[in-house]
Amino acid sequence: MELTKALDEIVLLPHVGQQLAPVISSLVAHVDGGSLGNPGPSGIGVVIDGCPTGRIRIAKWIGYQDNNVAEYVALLEALQCSLALNATALHVYSDSQVVVKQITGEYVCRSPRLYSLHWICRKLARTIDFSIAHVSRNFNLEANRLANSAARNQARRRAFPDIHVSLDALVSKALGLDGLLEGSRSRNEVKA
Prior knowledge:
Layout: H1 2-8, E1 11-13, E2 18-20, E3 24-35, E4 40-49, E5 56-65, H2 67-84, E6 87-94, H3 97-103, H4 112-125, E7 129-134, H5 141-159, H6 167-174
Parallel strand pairs: 3-6, 6-7
Antiparallel strand pairs: 1-2, 3-4, 4-5
Helix pairs in contact: 2-4
């Protein structure tokens, strides 16, 4: 209870007018990236534990990429999230041997596609107490499920854009209020 109360009180610096987030000591992240085809529709999944407000789950569509790019983007998302939460340490579990071995320096990153992502991840990792370890896919199931869900849902929307109909648009059309409900039309809905 006291921790929650302390987190609600944010320190204000009067001389610069900025707010400082409370410091979180250590976070643990499970990351995964995947694509449907290589390259193909891709998504990332990130699960972060250790945050006082509870587990954080992230599933994002990242466009048409290959598996290794998706794995690096998932790691980048975890690093950015931990820095935004003001964490002092981050331990990452990934089922990608390529990413783990390149980040730890066991492998050299020679791929032009991956080099900039690798460099950014290493740069961000130096700003906190960072570690990364390889785990089998069986120990990374939730992140894997999130990544696959992000890739599949976006791929489905792009393949069948006319299936996703806004409920507001249907109701307004049925009531003769077509166009009166603000924000009732999105780019993916059917104009009934």
